[in-house]
Specification:
Blueprint: E1 2-5, H1 10-21, E2 27-30, H2 38-48, H3 61-66, H4 78-87, E3 96-98, E4 104-106, H5 110-114
Parallel strand pairs: 1-2
Antiparallel strand pairs: 1-3, 3-4
């Protein structure tokens, strides 16, 4: 399994602590330093069953700079959202865990982290 984190994120640290407590095997991706590609975002969104606007952090200064709050949240604008997330990974909600079995979760609660454990 892989977890996308920002080391400064408290929810990321909590998720890592829980994974460690459960002796889970995982790799860490510092997604700000190693941003996901458009294709990786597409895959993660499919696995999460979400749209790009569902994982966007619209309160970030980068979102304000882009005017993200005014972007339509509809299929015709989906690629624009994904490209923005790939170009500015700070806009991606975290942590995101992708498990080897094909599942993925926004790991923002202990329950969501536990849901991907074998």
């Amino acid at each position: 399994m892989e977890i996308w984190i920002n080391p400064a994120c408290s929810k990321c640290q909590s998720a890592l602590s829980l994974l460690d407590a459960e002796d889970a095997r995982y790799t860490v991706r510092h997604y700000l330093e190693d941003p996901p590609t458009v294709a990786e975002l597409e895959e993660v969104l499919q696995r999460l069953g979400l749209e790009p606007w569902d994982i966007a952090r619209t309160g970030e200064p980068a979102a304000t700079d882009l005017g993200l709050a005014s972007w339509p949240r509809e299929a015709g604008h989906r690629s624009r959202w994904i490209e923005a997330l790939a170009a500015r990974p700070i806009l991606i909600q975290r942590p995101i865990i992708t498990a080897d079995d094909g599942t993925a979760v926004m790991a923002r609660t202990p329950e969501s982290v536990r849901s991907v454990l074998p």
